[in-house]
Amino acid sequence: MHDQSTYRIRIDLAYDGTAYHGWATQPGLATIQETVEDGLATIFRQPVATTVAGRTDAGVHAANQVIHFDIPTALWEKLPGNHRMRPAETAMVTKLNGVLAKTSGAIRIRTAQIAPEGFDARFSPIARSYRYRIALEELDPLTRHFTYHHRKALDIDRMVEEISGIEGLHDFGSFCKPRPGATTIRTLQEFRITRDEAVITLHLTADAFCHHMVRALVGALLRVGDGSRETGWLRKRLTNPARDSDMVLAPAHGLILDHVTYPADEQLGARAAQTRAKRDPTMLPYD
After folding, report:
1. How buried is residue 201: exposed, middle or buried, by Cβ count under 10 Å (0-12/13-18/19+)?
2. Which CATH number belongs to the domain containing residue 115 in this structure?
3. Are residues 77 and 178 located together in one domain of the fold?
4. Which of the following is catalytic: 12, 16, 57, 70?
5. Is residue 171, in this structure, part of any structural domain at all?
6. What would the DSSP string read from start to end of 78-111?
7. Catalytic residue list contains 57
8. Terminus of the chain with fewer CB atoms < 10 Å: N or C?
9. Structural domain tally of the chain?
């Protein structure tokens, strides 16, 4: 947490993950985190460490991602520079977007603000929502970076039936990459399908997702939808929460982090404390 000499800053951003090796910094690889932190370091002229709401894998995109960082109040208050009528929040967005535009232009800062007391981008959320886009016909070249074309015909009714009523508390061990000492128990709040012309979109919301969970659920549903597996196969995997060779990941590029939901300001601190108590401290929410 921050003290009175610092501000905790919340930033909402979007990115095209095509050219990046995911969110988290990795030596020698281009990542969203490193690019954003380099931009912040350029602006503040000192290293800035960020905390993210949910790490995304290589090639995964975000329409609305959330991060926070702590910065000395003096540095924050200098941001407007000679534009005294301009709020620091506006200056932050303008300056950081200006720096990021010099890279690939694939990352865009939407908003910046001083976070309410108790806010933690990682531990305060009550839900994270993703969508996965699947083209049913030939892939539109203009949307190829964020839409997956499944080559086999899909039975949409069969897919809807497979996930009907599946929401709730489950152990998703058969749909996750395990991490030592970390739980794979999650509450799936939504799993539904919508269709718009030649594209179907899978919508998934949970309190958090463990590593590979979204892409593994989508991969399993696709196998039921194209007839590779019998109806009920996805549900059967839920009853045996152990990762095995039948776990197939849907390609990363069809996945988009849609939004992160936080409770009311007065509940942020309590929610963060509750989440920390339930999860292993080394466990970061993933896709």
Report:
1. middle
2. 3.30.70.580
3. no
4. 57
5. yes
6. TTTTT-TTS-HHHHHHHHHHHHHTTTTS-EEEEE
7. yes
8. N
9. 2
Give the whole-angstrom CA distance, residue 243 versus residue 99: 42
pLDDT at 118: 97
Give the pLDDT confidence of 89-110 residue by residue, as tens digits.
999 999 999 999 998 789 999 9
Cα gap 94→5, rounded to integer Å? 24
- Give residue-wise pLDDT tens across range 53-93: 999 999 999 999 999 999 999 999 999 887 878 999 999 99
pTM score: 0.92
What confidence category does residue 179 fall into, taking pLDDT thresholds of 50, 70 and 90? confident
Residue 265 structure tokens: 């300001």
The reply, when asked if residue 130 is annotated as ligand binding, is yes
Q: Which residues on neighbouring strands pair with residue 67, listed in sequence order?
A: 11, 52
Please name the residue that has the structure tokens 């939407």. 110
Q: Alpha helix (H) ranges present in the chain?
A: 32-44, 73-77, 88-100, 156-163, 213-225, 233-238, 268-278
- Please report how many Cα atoms fall inside a 13 Å half-sphere around the Cα of residue 69, on the Cβ side: 20
